[in-house]
Automatic annotation (TrEMBL):
Pfam families: CinA, CinA_KH, MoCF_biosynth. Residues 4-170 form the MoaB/Mog domain. Belongs to the CinA family. This is Putative competence-damage inducible protein. The gene is cinA. It comes from Halobacillus litoralis. InterPro entries: CinA, CinA-like_C, CinA_C, CinA_KH, Competence-induced_CinA, MoaB/Mog-like_dom_sf, MoaB/Mog_dom.
Length: 412
């Protein structure tokens, strides 16, 4: 079964309000085992609304329309529906009584155009709107089930729960359940991940796999259907095992898990305490991990030393080192990590120094970043990067890379 959602309203296209209705409906339909294949938003223009309905009728089994059922001239859903479905509209007496009662109860005079809100299609299964005025409607037209709902989220949700979902469950004898899990990977690009999983992706049926890139990491959404939730979850678990057998070295967690949360868990597992020395990142690294519940068990503290003078006075970076190599250097990042471990009495120290931009500094281009790591009594290591983007992007990418480096070092 192919489901499509059409939202009617120019205000959506102008960005004045967000189309949260489509997101909510999609989630509920997925839970029913009726996946949504398409979202559309169309403005208040009769030809365009009718055209979107015409296209939907060609490709979908269930079409859910929200909005355009109000009293004004630009509420065109009924007009477009009449054109495409070949249905006349008439006044729905119970809805009209409810509208009139509302105005009487609130001591208001009802304008004549409000009668339009009670109009329904000929032969429609009418859903009483107890939260508003315009009723919902369901129409079976050939092989397509049409659902028309008000655009007000409160009204739409009430009608979906009380009328639309029970109708669909009864009409389609829904037996399948849909389950998804988002796997998170770091240290591998989207193209490399897809290459490693190409055989699985090209042969996917149930579950399906969808790579999704985000800042500094890659997600892989696994989606499975089954007659029961347990069956769908079992399919997800089997595919997840196969996926991790290929790219498990880069996997740090699923769904709501964050990279900083995983690093926190690894520090706790080892019994390590963490400290940081930050220059151009300005404390962003420690802020990310300190914001987690239970951070005090693994975080000792952080030192923000922005200028050369502060690096000398707070971190004890020798003047000769800064004079010879500069603050934006392999040598300075290494000494920052080493001295932070000693000054804060921690097992793990990470340091950040670099040029966020927009101008060059010490002969280094914007985006030049050095990240130092010192773990227990191991030899210190320093990694150099050249990040693209503006000042804020460089800082955020450096912080994410710091967590990535710690993750790969600590998990091994």
């Amino acid at each position: 079964m192919r489901t499509e959602i059409i939202a009617v309203g120019t205000e959506l296209l102008l960005g004045q309000i967000a189309n949260t209705n489509a997101q909510w409906i999609s989630q509920r339909m997925a839970e029913l085992g009726l996946p949504v294949y398409s979202h559309a938003v169309v403005g208040d223009n009769l030809d365009r609304v009718a055209g979107s309905f015409r296209e939907a009728a060609r490709r979908s089994d269930i079409v859910i329309v929200t909005g355009g059922l109000g009293p004004t001239e630009d509420d065109l859903t009924r007009d477009a529906g009449s054109m495409i479905l070949g249905k006349t509209v008439h006044e729905h007496a119970p809805s009209m009584e409810r509208i009139e009662a509302y105005y009487k109860r609130n001591n208001k005079k009802m304008s004549l155009n409000n009668r339009k809100q009670s109009h329904v299609f000929e032969g429609a299964h009418v859903l009483d709107n107890m939260e508003g005025m315009a009723p919902g409607q369901i129409i079976q037209q050939g092989e397509v089930t049409w659902v028309f709902l008000p655009g007000v989220p409160r009204e739409m949700k009430a009608l979906m729960e009380s009328g639309v979902i029970p109708y669909l469950q009864q009409s389609f004898s829904i037996q399948s359940e849909i389950v998804s899990e988002m796997l998170h990977f770091i240290g591998i690009g989207e193209s490399d991940l897809e290459t490693e999983l190409q055989t699985l992706i090209s042969g996917q049926t149930n579950p399906t796999l969808a790579p999704l890139a985000s800042e500094g990491e890659v997600g892989l959404r696994l989606t499975a259907t089954g007659e029961t939730t347990e069956e769908a979850k079992a399919k997800i678990a089997e595919m997840k095992t196969t996926v991790l057998g290929k790219v498990g070295d880069f996997y740090y967690g699923s769904d709501d898990q964050t990279i900083e949360g995983t690093v926190q868990q690894l520090l706790s597992r080892h019994g390590y305490r963490l400290g940081a020395a930050e220059s151009f990142t300005g404390g962003k690294f420690m802020e990310r991990i300190i914001s987690l519940p239970g951070a005090s068990a693994v975080c000792q503290g952080g030192l923000t030393t922005y200028t050369a003078e502060m690096k000398e006075q707070v971190l004890d970076i020798p003047k000769y080192l800064i004079r010879e190599y500069g603050t934006i250097s392999h040598e300075c990042a290494e000494m920052m990590a080493l001295n932070t471990q000693s000054l804060l009495d921690v097992d793990v120290a990470v340091s950040f120094t670099g040029v966020a931009g927009p101008d060059s500094s010490e002969g280094k281009e914007p985006g030049t970043v050095f990240i130092g790591l010192q773990i227990k009594d191991k030899s210190p290591e320093v990694h150099r990067f050249q990040f693209p983007g503006g000042r804020d992007q460089v800082r955020e990418r450096a912080v994410k890379k710091g967590f990535e480096l710690l993750f790969h070092r600590l998990k091994n």
